[in-house]
Amino acid sequence: MEGQAEMNPDMMQKQIEQAQAQQEQQAQMEEAKNSMMKQILSTEARERLSNIQAANPKRAEQIESIIIGNARNGTIQGKVSDAQLIDLIDQFDTKKSQETTVTFKRKNLIDSDEEEDLDEMFS
Q1: Under CATH, which architecture does the 9-122 domain have?
Q2: Is the dihedral of CA 43, 48, 51, 53 positive or negative?
Q3: What does pTM read for this prediction?
Q4: In angstroms, rounded to a whole number, what is the distance separating the alpha carbons of residues 40 and 115?
Q5: What residue ranges do the domains of the chain occupy?
Q6: Between 77 and 43, where is the model more confident?
């Protein structure tokens, strides 16, 4: 019964290899993204994005995704300057900050005549 509690060495080796392969794939994807960002962004824009990355990694990742998506769609042509990056970030923030509000309009089911009748009934 001890064999069930312990992992088979072959299974452990296979899991280690899978984890290493996954790490290598993530590293390749990260390198491809960085290479693409170097081609798309000017030096100043890359510096700004790295500052955003240091302060808010999740936000930087979202901005990078937008930039890469726009580049793939052909929306971005040439290098993106720092000013263009600022405009893109402002657009992103504006879209993100727009919230939908819902207001409920409740109908008054009792009109004023009925209220008087109810008052008389309970008096």
Answers
A1: Orthogonal Bundle (1.10)
A2: negative
A3: 0.60
A4: 69
A5: 9-122
A6: 43
